[in-house]
Structure formats: structure tokens, C-alpha cells
């Protein structure tokens, strides 16, 4: 890391620390009173649950009561089942009063037993039982009718001599004035979080509802039997569940309650992990104390959003420094603005990652929750790695001052350096007229010492290959034609056959596809690069000449250009280009040394280049177009070509993985390893994204069909794919505008075409992990364009995904909680996930309309001209 990088790292570290400090600036809130009037008291601990009737021991209850004694006048219980019946007796020993509760459900037998026991416990402990509550939100849950509740209340009122009521939210009391006639006081729950009230307005809202009840029932005492705020959970409209908001609400409310003379019970003393299954994350986090019986916030000191922020800031800054050390270690030619951009990305990512881990650490993890957390961690890690790799390419492409390894066409050496070149043209079932054009261009090469070998493999129709054979004879002895049938190994097999037939004195092997028309300067300009004895591969870009035929091909052309104007140039800086099988030259001796083309791999060109790097040889890339071929005519062929490239990438990574990660000895440099892994990461991300979409659709179906049991996933599951999509889209737009010299229409066309390939790439990546190899398939040239119906059939998988994701996004918003933030973000994510599928359908339809003019996209400038070319 140079001085500029160190300076930027220090500045960003300071800014990051300042940001953490500003976000966590202290809030001065009213102090906690010396004595709280009462706590809602459920003494369940981890592994215990009211749902499974696993109760705490009396010793545990006594321990909890001892913790509250001295700080509270009373506790409110909810049931007399099991050991909970001992609460009044144990509380008396600690000097605590009790509001005794009976749990009323929709099971009559259980209700009878609960009420009988309530009466018995009351009579045995009446000295410290100040109130009795029959049922908790029973009417809200619609488990009993009002007449049924009145019957229960009257029975208890006749059997005990303490004031009796039932506990319900404020609106239930306003809705049922007949209920008020049968209670001694109104036991009201004021929980503004559940109503989506922002914390800044929550205390005033409680006062508003309290006063509303007082006006409606002026003769009835009002006791607030639950009032509180959760420290974690879903954001409900404007109500954010957080530790800071919990502390803020409670400290403000308690001050207001003391001022106004309210009788209240804070909801609640201890976090109840078991409530998570019924009420979601928020249900487990209402306690003033956590499940370990530790206070969750300061009772008197100024409040901060994240009390541990200094530790988190230090961790995030340390991670950022490590990331920047890796990103800056080979950035000598990068401008300061590029390093600044990487620093912003690194610090943002590190802060985000630390926050995710911290946020999950605040939750109570069940086994399923732990699994989800681990999945989320690795998903976040994968997204972070992809973003870092994309950001690094972005920075290098935009802010590199000087390309160190960008070669020039050396026309001076071309005068004297003329090693023999053997040009290989593999062909299979190619149109004769097209192939003749390719041969004419080769015959016109301005180079004194070359031969051309045409290898037609497995073409069955003599009317296809015999005219080409005859034409080669016309062109002279330097043009040799071979028709081989049968020949195994697909294209690699044909190229290996050509190697065996190559002239003994040929030193350079050049390969072009059968549809390419090469520039007459191709060999003259590029061959001099082989004067360097370590130079094994010289590559110029794939380019195309039919981009003006229609709008579809203009879109494809714009999409192709990105890799050759951006990716190949940045890879060339670390001697890590992808060797692609046309417009390439390879040293003959190196070909012999590594054993020729790999017939097991359908992307034999990229695999060959990697093997050459593993031997320690060099390669170079000249970003000037020396030949133009033909693009796929239809979207289905466009997809097949990209499937082959992506599938081949997986197979290559699997075959060379130990060498790429350094577990097998090779001559690969760190830069080469980085580019061969990072360069294919976006494709691997597409594969993972396909699996994510299946899981997201399945989860959404569960959310729609079983809304009471299937909650939306953690919001980060939606934020991650959204972030990755936005980042990649911005990167594509900016780089196309700057590095590919594309206008707005061309940039959008390239982005649309690239998105349209997302699904087929994803399929290829997944298939590549579960299969060992598939057959080679060529990309047809001059194929008949698709009709519109056929175009839809060609994108039927994408169309089905599009429909499913859009319907899922709509359906999930129809839930009762469809307006909540996590639901809205999840629906947004599903909608964004549908965009690549929509792009596929649209591009396929465009390919089925070949009459659409390429002028809709516009003619792109020629590929960057080599500055050394004269």
C-alpha cells in the first residue's frame, strides 16, 4: 500500500468512526424512577414455554422475584398453572404485591380448572394479592364471546374480595361498554408498537387513549396492565423495534405516569423466548431484562442507539483496513479517486457486515433460527465478495492512469520478424458461401509466411463441405482442407486434428471461427509480440459485423462489447486474460508442451489459456478489432452460446480448483488466481440467485397460505439481492458510458441483453455443479429468425418465473400485515428479481421481430484502436 492508499485509509477510518459516533450520539431522557409500580411477570426461561407447559422451578421464580424486589411494588401474573401458582406466596416473602391472573382460552374444561385454581390460590394468599384478572386479551383473540367472559367474571367476583377485571386493549373496552358493567376496574393494554405508532409519538398516544377511556367511563378506575416496547422485531409501519427505542419509550412513559398518577405494569420484566413462535421476533423482546436476567439498557445514563458502538466501530474499521490492504496492494497506476471509491465501498461493506452480525447476536436463536442465521451469513459473505470484485473492476476500468501491459502493434518489427503461422479454421455444417468469405479474407493477409487449414468435422451433406474443399484448391497449396467424419472431441477434436496436420516449420498457431473476416494486417501487427520468448498467447477481441441488421443484433453487439473493452483490459494488467477461441494466436511449442486442446471441455479455449498460465507463460491482449464474425440470429441461440460459456467456466473451475486456490503447485500468480476466480463470480452469483428465487417463492407461498405461521424472513434476505442488483446495474451503466463509449440507448440495450441472459447463466452454473460434462453445441449462423410465438416458447422458463414472481409480490401484500416494512421490502425484492426474466421475454420477442431497425439502438464506435498502429 503506497502513501496515497495509507492516507485514504486513515481518512476513511476517521470518517467511519465519526459516523458511528454521530449515529450513537447520546439522548438525554428522564431517569428511571426509584420504584416501578409493577411489572408484567412471566418467569419462563430459555427452553421453558407456556405453550408446552414446561414451567420454571419455584427456585427460579424466587430468583426472578428477588431481582425485582426493591425496584418494584408489584408483579402481574398470567396463569396459575403449574409452579406459577406459587408466585403470590413467593412474592410475599420478597415484599411484592401481586395482580393474580387466570388464563382463559377457547377450551371450556381448561377454563373451569384455571378459574377453580385461581380462587383457591387467591384465598390462600389474599394478603398480598391486590387485584385479580380473568383472561388476557381473550376477546381480542376471539376465543370467548362477551357473554362468556361476563359469566367468568361474575363467578370470580362472587368468590374473591379483591377488585376483578379482564385485560384487553383499549379499543375492546370502547367497543363493549356492556363489559365494563361487570368489572371493578378497566385493565387496559397500551402497546403503541403493535399499532405502528412512531416512538416519538408513542407516549402521547398512550395518554390520548387513557384519557379517551376516562371520558367514556368516568366512574371506573383504570389500570394500565401492559405498557411497553420491544427491543427487537419487525418494523410495524412507523414503529421501529430497537433497544434504544424501548429505553426511550419506557423512560418517557414512566416519567409521564408518575406525573399523571397512573397505575401501571411495565410489559414486561423478562424477555420471553417462547413467545417468538406466536408473536415473531418482537414477542421475545419485551423484557426490561433479557433472558439472562441482565438489564438491556441504562436506567439513568444518557441513551445511545448501540451501547457497544465503539467495539463495533473498531471491528468494522479493522476489517476495512484488511480489505483495503488487499485492494491497494497492486494499485500503483490507479488514480486517487479510484482508491477513494474502493475505500468507500470497503468501509460500507465492513460496516454492513458487522451490523448484520451484531443484529443477529441480539436475537434468541432456536435451531431453525441458527440455521437461518448461518445461511444469511454466507449469503451476505457471498454478496460482499461479489460486490468487492465488481467494485475493484469498476475502479480499475475507470481510474487507471496508465495501462502497464497494454501492447502496441509493432509495425517496425513486423518488417523483419516473420515466423510461420498456421491458421486453423474449424467448421461444422457451415454455409459454404460464408466460409468462402472467410477464406478470401485470409488469402488477402499482408504476411509472407502462413498456411491455412480448414477442418470440417462430421458434416454429413457433401453439398455443404465439397464446395469449400474445391475453393481451397483454387486458393493454392497454402490452403488445405480436411473433411473428417467421424471425429470425436467436437471443436477441440477438430483443432487437435489440425495440430497434427500443421506444417513442421510453423511456429505460431492461429485460430479463427469459420464466420470471421479478418483484417489484412492481423498477422503482421500481432505476430511481433512473440519476439518475447515467454509470450505464449496473443489475443485480439471477438468482434462482429452484422450489428446493423436489426435491433436484436445491435443489442447483442452492445452486450458483447463490455467484456472486450473492460474485462479483458483489466485482466491483461495481471497477465490473466481469458483465451477465447477465435482471433487468437498460440506458440506452437507451448501447444505441444501442454498437450493441445482439451477435448473433455466445451470451452476448450479458456481452459487452454489457464493451462498455459499454470506453466508460467505470458499472454497479451490488443484491444483493436482485427476480425469480425457473425452473431447469433435468435435469442435461443444467443442463450445457447452463453450457456456453453458459463457451463464451461464451472467445469474449468472444478477441474483446476486445487491449482486456483493454491493447494497444488503451479506457476499461477496471485493476480491470475484472483481474476480467474473473481471474473466468474458474477456468474456463480447468478446460479445462487436461481436457488434463492426457488426458496423465495416457496417461502412466499407459505407466507400467503399460512400467514399465522410463516412470517416474512429477516429483512436482510431482501436487502442483499436488492443491493447487489443496484450495484451491478450502476456499474454496468457507468462503465459502458466511459469505457465502451456507449450512449444512453446503447448502455440500456447492453444492460437489457445482459439481464436477459441471467437465467440461462444461472442454469448453466447449477448444471455445471451437478454434472460432469455435456455435449458441445455450436452457435448457428444465418439461422432463420424466430416468429413471435416461437420467441415466447424460447423464453418459456423465464416467462413462468416472471409470472410467478410478480404474482408472489402482489399476493404477499394482500396479507393483513401487507403494509409493514418487511413485507413491502420483500415484495419489492420479488419484483426486482423478476426484472431479468422480464428482460429475457422482451429480448426474445425483439429477436422474433427482425424487421426492427438497428437504428433504434444506434451504431457503436469501432473497438478501441491500438495507439501504436500506423
TrEMBL record:
Alphabetical list of PANTHER family matching this protein: BETA-(1-3)-GLUCOSYL TRANSFERASE, CELLULOSE SYNTHASE CATALYTIC SUBUNIT A [UDP-FORMING]
Catalysed reactions listed for this entry: a 1,2-diacyl-sn-glycerol + UDP-alpha-D-glucose = a 1,2-diacyl-3-O-(beta-D-glucopyranosyl)-sn-glycerol + UDP + H(+)
Protein's recorded name: Beta-monoglucosyldiacylglycerol synthase
Gene3D superfamilies: Glycosidases, Spore Coat Polysaccharide Biosynthesis Protein SpsA, Chain A
Membrane topology recorded in Swiss-Prot or TrEMBL: Multi-pass membrane protein
Keyword Transmembrane: yes
Enzyme's top EC category: transferase
The keyword Transmembrane is annotated on this UniProt entry: yes
A single BP term in Gene Ontology: carbohydrate metabolic process
Localization per record: Membrane
Native source species: Desulfoprunum benzoelyticum
Keywords for this protein: Glycosyltransferase, Hydrolase, Magnesium, Membrane, Transferase, Transmembrane, Transmembrane helix
Listed transmembrane segments: 5-23, 309-328, 340-358, 370-389, 690-709, 715-736, 748-770
MF (Gene Ontology): hexosyltransferase activity; hydrolase activity, hydrolyzing O-glycosyl compounds
Amino acid at each position: 500500500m503506497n502513501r496515497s492508499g495509507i492516507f485514504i485509509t486513515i481518512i476513511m477510518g476517521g470518517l467511519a468512526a465519526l459516523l458511528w459516533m454521530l449515529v450513537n450520539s447520546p439522548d438525554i431522557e428522564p431517569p428511571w424512577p426509584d420504584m416501578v409500580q409493577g411489572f408484567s411477570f412471566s418467569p419462563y426461561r430459555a427452553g421453558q414455554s407456556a405453550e408446552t407447559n414446561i414451567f420454571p422451578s419455584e427456585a427460579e421464580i424466587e430468583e426472578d422475584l428477588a431481582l425485582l424486589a426493591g425496584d418494584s411494588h408489584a408483579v402481574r401474573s398470567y396463569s396459575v398453572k403449574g409452579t406459577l401458582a406459587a408466585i403470590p406466596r413467593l412474592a410475599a416473602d420478597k415484599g411484592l404485591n401481586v395482580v393474580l391472573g387466570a388464563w382463559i382460552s377457547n377450551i371450556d374444561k381448561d377454563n373451569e380448572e384455571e378459574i377453580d385454581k385461581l380462587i383457591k390460590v387467591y384465598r390462600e394468599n389474599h394478603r398480598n394479592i391486590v387485584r385479580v384478572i380473568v383472561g388476557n386479551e381473550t376477546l381480542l383473540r376471539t376465543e370467548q364471546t362477551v357473554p362468556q367472559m361476563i359469566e367468568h367474571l361474575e363467578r370470580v367476583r362472587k368468590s374473591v374480595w379483591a377488585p376483578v377485571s379482564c385485560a384487553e386493549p383499549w379499543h375492546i373496552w370502547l367497543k363493549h361498554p356492556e363489559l365494563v358493567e361487570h368489572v371493578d376496574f378497566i385493565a387496559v393494554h397500551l402497546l403503541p408498537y403493535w399499532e405502528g405508532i412512531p416512538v416519538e409519538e408513542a407516549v402521547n398516544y398512550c395518554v390520548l387513549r387513557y384519557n379517551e377511556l376516562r371520558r367514556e367511563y368516568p366512574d371506573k378506575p383504570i389500570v394500565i396492565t401492559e405498557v411497553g416496547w420491544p427491543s427487537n422485531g419487525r418494523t410495524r409501519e412507523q414503529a421501529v423495534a430497537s433497544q434504544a427505542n424501548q429505553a426511550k419509550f419506557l423512560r418517557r412513559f414512566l416519567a409521564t405516569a408518575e406525573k399523571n398518577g397512573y397505575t401501571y405494569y411495565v410489559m414486561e420484566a423478562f424477555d420471553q423466548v417462547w413467545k417468538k413462535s406466536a408473536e415473531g421476533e418482537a414477542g421475545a423482546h419485551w423484557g426490561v431484562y433479557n433472558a439472562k436476567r441482565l438489564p438491556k439498557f441504562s436506567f439513568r445514563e444518557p441513551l445511545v442507539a448501540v451501547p457497544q458502538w465503539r467495539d463495533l466501530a473498531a471491528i468494522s474499521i479493522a476489517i476495512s483496513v484488511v480489505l483495503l490492504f488487499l485492494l491497494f496492494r497492486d494499485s500503483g497506476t490507479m488514480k486517487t479517486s479510484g482508491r477513494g471509491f474502493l475505500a468507500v465501498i470497503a468501509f460500507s461493506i465492513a460496516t454492513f457486515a458487522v451490523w448484520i452480525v451484531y443484529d443477529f447476536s441480539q436475537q434468541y436463536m432456536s435451531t431453525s433460527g441458527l440455521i437461518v442465521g448461518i445461511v444469511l451469513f454466507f449469503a451476505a459473505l457471498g454478496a460482499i465478495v461479489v460486490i468487492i470484485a465488481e467494485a475493484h473492476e469498476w475502479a480499475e476500468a475507470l481510474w487507471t492512469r496508465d495501462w502497464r501491459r497494454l501492447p502496441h502493434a509493432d509495425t517496425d518489427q513486423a518488417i523483419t520478424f516473420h515466423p510461420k503461422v498456421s491458421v486453423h479454421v474449424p467448421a461444422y455444417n457451415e454455409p459454404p458461401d460464408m466460409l468462402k468469405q472467410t477464406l478470401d479474407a485470409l488469402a488477402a493477409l499482408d504476411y509472407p509466411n502462413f498456411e491455412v487449414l480448414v477442418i470440417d468435422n462430421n458434416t454429413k451433406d457433401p453439398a455443404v463441405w465439397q464446395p469449400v474443399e474445391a475453393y481451397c484448391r483454387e486458393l493454392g497449396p497454402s490452403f488445405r482442407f480436411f473433411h473428417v467424419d467421424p471425429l470425436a472431441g467436437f471443436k477441440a477434436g477438430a483443432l487437435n486434428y489440425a495440430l497434427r496436420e500443421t506444417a513442421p516449420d510453423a511456429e505460431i498457431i492461429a485460430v479463427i471461427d469459420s464466420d470471421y473476416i479478418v483484417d489484412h494486417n492481423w498477422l503482421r501487427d500481432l505476430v511481433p509480440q512473440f519476439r518475447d520468448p515467454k509470450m505464449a498467447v496473443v489475443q485480439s477481441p471477438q468482434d462482429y459485423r452484422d450489428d446493423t441488421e436489426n435491433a436484436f443484433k445491435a443489442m447483442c453487439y452492445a452486450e458483447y462489447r463490455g467484456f472486450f473493452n473492460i474485462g479483458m483490459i483489466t485482466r491483461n494488467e495481471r497477465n490473466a486474460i481469458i483465451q477465447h477461441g477465435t482471433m487468437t494466436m498460440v506458440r506452437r511449442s507451448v501447444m505441444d508442451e501442454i498437450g493441445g486442446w482439451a477435448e473433455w471441455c466445451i470451452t476448450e479455449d479458456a481452459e487452454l489459456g489457464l493451462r498455459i498460465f499454470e506453466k508460467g507463460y505470458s499472454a497479451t491482449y490488443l484491444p483493436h478489432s482485427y476480425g469480425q464474425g457473425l452473431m447469433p440470429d435468435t435469442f435461443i441461440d444467443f442463450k445457447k452460446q452463453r450457456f456453453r460459456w458459463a457451463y464451461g467456466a464451472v467445469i474449468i473451475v472444478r477441474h483446476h480448483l486445487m491449482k486456483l486456490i493454491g493447494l497444488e503447485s503451479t506457476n499461477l500468480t496471485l493476480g491470475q488466481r484472483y481474476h480467474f476466480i473473481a471474473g466468474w463470480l458474477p456468474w456463480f452469483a447468478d446460479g445462487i440467485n436461481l436457488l434463492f428465487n426457488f426458496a423465495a417463492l416457496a417461502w412466499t407461498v407459505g407466507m400467503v397460505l399460512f400467514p399465522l405461521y410463516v412470517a416474512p424472513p429477516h429483512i436482510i434476505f431482501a436487502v442483499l439481492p436488492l443491493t447487489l442488483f443496484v450495484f451491478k446495474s450502476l456499474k454496468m451503466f457507468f462503465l459502458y458510458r466511459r469505457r465502451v463509449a456507449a450512449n444512453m440507448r446503447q448502455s440500456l440495450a447492453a444492460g437489457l441483453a445482459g439481464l436477459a441472459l441471467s437465467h440461462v447463466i444461472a442454469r448453466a452454473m447449477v448444471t455445471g455443479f451437478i454434472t460432469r460434462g455435456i455435449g458441445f453445441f455450436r452457435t448457428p449462423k444465418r439461422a432463420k429468425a424466430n416468429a413471435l410465438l416461437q420467441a415466447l416458447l424460447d423464453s418459456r422458463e423465464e416467462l413462468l418465473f416472471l409470472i410467478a414472481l410478480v404474482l408472489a409480490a402482489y399476493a404477499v401484500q394482500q396479507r393483513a400485515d401487507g403494509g409493514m416494512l418487511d413485507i413491502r421490502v420483500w415484495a419489492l425484492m420479488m419484483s426486482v428479481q423478476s426484472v431479468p426474466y422480464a428482460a429475457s421475454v422482451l429480448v426474445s420477442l425483439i429477436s422474433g421481430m427482425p424487421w426492427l431497425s438497428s437504428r433504434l439502438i444506434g451504431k457503436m464506435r469501432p473497438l478501441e484502436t491500438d495507439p501504436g498502429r500506423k
